Amino acid sequence: MTSPMDQEPTEIPDDSPSLLHRIGHLGSTVGRRAPKKRSTKFILQGAFAFLIFGFLVLTVVTQWSELQEKGVAFNLVWLLPAMVAMSFFYVGSASVWGLILRFMHSPVPPAEVQKIWAQPLLVRYIPGTVLFLLARVLMAERAGVSRRVTSAGLVYEQAVSIAGALTVATYFLIAHPDLEGKPVRWLPLLIIPLMVGLLHPRVFGPVSSRLLNALGRDSLPKLLSFGGVLAIYACYVVLWCLMGVGVYLAARSVYFLDLTELPVVASSQAVGFLAAVVSAVTPAGLGVRDAAFAWAVKVALPSGSFGIGAAIAIAVRATQTVVELIYVGTVTAVTRRRGVLIPAKHPAPDPAD
What we know:
The protein is mainly α. Helices cover 66% and strands 0% of the residues. The protein has twelve helices and no strands.
């Protein structure tokens, strides 16, 4: 007969959630509870709006002063069609994101898609990208899309958009005189199929499931078929070509560029976008994107002047900022007027989400 002292201690199971589970729970609940006090909510919203407005004003003022120092004068004949082409790029990008949600069996009305995609654009002017992504997730949730689906849609969108931009920039990178003789210029030919291939359901499915399960979340209810991935990729290639036309027209309003330089200018803006993606810390890629574009577009200039390239980059940035403001303002006004016809959904929180 053994005494109680001789018995081995019974292990008490540890039911406390792991760190990854706690992170997953935080991600699934943050932003759901609004401040109870109306005054607190008003102050937070006002401070947030003031912060966004402050960064926007600072961006425009800085660009305008640099334009004046360089003696640049806009030619409205070229500027207006540039703004139209850029506007179609934003409308088309939002529509492609809505198509991604539809492929994932979480359709959202077209007007709501434009609103959810457009309004967070202004948040990009605050340093960092977390708020920009979080705003999209929260707004999509109000429209009935679970956070898991929105997050996966963002991964699809960003990856395929980068692959599309890299496709547009590939010829330019290979033919750029500064990269002549350097093997690195051939890398896009390897990176593009790799990026698209990683989104194949047989690859993206297990990877996303393992990550979500580690965070204590269920697997995605629906994945994009590889045919859907290729369709989205083709759409983004077309969209980046369209943005290239808009950038060429904006550049033409500052400096004479022959029509034969359109491919170079279009590729240059894609290079600038990719540089902004790599930096990821500047608001809306400010500075990094413009410098990369100025370096790339100088190839299209007879003198190869980086100074003129910088002036063109500033003009393009100013035009793009104005277009973004007009686009967001128009979408907000239209959806607010149609808010009665397209009410936002408020589903009960998904325990698995």
